[in-house]
Write a structure and sequence with these properties.
This protein has 383 residues and is mainly alpha-helical. It is 74% helix and 0% strand. The radius of gyration is 21 Å and the shape is globular.
């Protein structure tokens, strides 16, 4: 028997929703508002040195947050029934439009309101072009899906797609800290390569360059392909996950103690430009810590399973709603009252938790409104 046949079946055996992956998504989602409250409501010095805000920004919101969202997105592609090149392309366009609408609601409108009320152009107007046109995670997801649709159209296997992403990551490692000395070109190019202006106004640092971050989406697709065919999930997690945890924790501790590297280095944004080895460590860490939702999924009461699955199904809605709430609450309301957005870590945590819960509830309301609208349209057609 071949080694692959020992651990994997030829045809998918883990079909349908895998509740441990829903739990994994839920863990990632509920922390979103907490992370972003810390990002917006903490002084820059607190984000650049070892502290509670640093932990929530650079660790939870950095190396163990967005990377895992992208991996989960790739796993979802392996599981979806709508994974043709055309469907993935359309999905990428839709995500891009959603990202644009989100920027209108969380940046454009509150910035105009904030400037009209307070008159602080430095806070609300000067950074607006970069915030609006910069490459946040939805813009990256859109580009990643569009590129993935091309690779699927070329009929590349998951292994070959991951190989392409590795080449991209290596190229991205060498195309970091690039300054084209033109703000427009820097913002546009920042969607693809690691832009970092060394001087000038505004200071631009690209958040999710496609070359550096596509590897997580591609690995998720590869992992999902084999997870569908995995014979014994318990054996896999008990054997592989502990090793992955030890390797990733040791590497991260080494970077923190040494004060070097992009992934765990001091600075609120440096992990966006991690090199290939660091990206692989993030992937290893994700595999390792999947053991936690796997075993949690075995003990979660039945009455909690549907709410968790619901939140997992509605990642985009929760994401968009929480960001709008964070910006309007911290960067507009608190800033207008205090003259700055900064609050202590404990209040920041509970504010983030409250906004997280509100985001999930509002996402449910939004989903119900969409379902009612579809039913209404269907009834009108049936008449």
């Amino acid at each position: 028997m071949k080694l692959s046949e020992k651990y994997f079946t030829k045809e998918p055996c883990n079909t349908g929703r895998q509740f441990e992956l829903d739990v994994f998504r839920f863990i990632l989602i509920y922390r979103l508002a907490i992370v972003h409250v810390f990002v917006d409501a903490s002084p820059p010095a607190a984000l650049d040195t070892l502290s509670i805000p640093y932990y929530f920004d650079s660790v939870v919101g950095g190396v163990i947050g967005p990377t895992r969202f992208m991996i989960v997105m790739g796993i979802g592609l392996a599981y979806t029934r709508h994974g043709s090149p055309e469907q993935v392309f359309k999905r990428g366009i839709k995500i891009g439009i959603i990202g644009l609408l989100l920027n209108v609601c969380r940046y454009l409108i509150p910035s105009i309101v904030g400037y009209a009320v307070i008159g602080d152009a430095e806070k609300y107007l000067n950074p607006l072009p970069y915030l609006f046109f910069g490459n946040d995670i939805l813009q990256f997801a859109s580009l990643a899906m569009l590129f993935m649709s091309l690779l699927l159209y070329l009929k590349l296997t998951p292994v070959k797609i991951f190989a392409v992403s590795l080449v991209m990551s290596v190229a991205g490692t060498f195309l970091r800290s690039v300054d084209l000395h033109n703000n427009v070109l820097n913002v546009i190019s920042g969607h693809i390569i690691g832009i970092e202006t060394v001087s000038g106004d505004p200071y631009i640092y690209s958040d999710f360059p496609l070359l550096i971050w596509f590897i997580f989406y591609a690995f998720g697709y590869l992992f999902g392909y084999y997870y569908l065919r995995l014979k014994d999930k318990k054996r896999f997690f008990n054997t592989v996950s502990p090793i992955c945890i030890i390797i990733s924790v040791a590497f991260c501790a080494w970077e923190i103690i040494g004060g070097f590297g992009m992934m765990m280095g001091e600075g609120a944004n440096v992990f966006y430009h991690m090199h290939t080895v660091e990206a692989l460590i993030c992937i290893i860490a994700c595999i390792g810590f999947l053991i936690i939702p796997f075993y949690l999924s075995k003990i979660i009461p039945e009455k909690l399973k549907k709410p968790i699955e619901y939140v997992s199904r509605n990642v985009n809605s929760v994401y968009c709603i929480h960001w709008v709430l964070v910006w309007w609450t911290v960067d507009l309301f608190i800033y207008s009252i205090k003259g700055d957005p900064y609050i202590k870590p404990i209040p920041a945590y509970f504010l983030g938790l409250a906004l997280s819960i509100i985001s999930m509830l509002l996402a449910q309301v939004w989903l119900q409104m969409k379902m009612n609208y579809k039913r209404k349209k269907a009834n009108e057609k049936g008449r």
